[in-house]
Specification:
98 residues; mainly alpha; two-stranded antiparallel ribbon; 3 helices
Length: 98
């Protein structure tokens, strides 16, 4: 999944959460939910109750945020490791010849 697809998925699930609260299952919300189910290859939310579906959407959004946080932390670790490789190595307080 590319960055643009991930951002779209985050936007879509956030829209559904807002729409779920505001529109209470109107047709626009239903169309967006069907497209979301297709995008994530998950077709069981139609059988969920109103509250179960809302909990699912909140949990899905929280999972996306966790994935993004983990990805950012891993990216920072890689950047820091790359910076350390640029610096001369020190052994026992002495600069190495490399």
């Amino acid at each position: 999944m590319g960055k643009d697809e991930f951002e779209k998925l985050k936007d879509d699930v956030h829209y559904l959460i807002v729409a779920h609260c505001k529109y209470k299952d109107m047709s626009m919300y239903d169309r967006a939910l069907k497209q979301f189910q297709k995008d994530i290859n998950y077709g069981q939310s139609e059988e969920m109750s109103y509250n179960e579906r809302f909990a699912f959407l909140l949990g899905f959004e929280a999972s996306l945020k966790a994935v993004e946080t983990i990805t950012l932390k891993e990216s920072d670790k890689l950047k820091n490791a790359a910076r350390r490789l640029d610096k001369p190595l020190e052994q026992c307080g002495l600069m190495s010849a490399t």
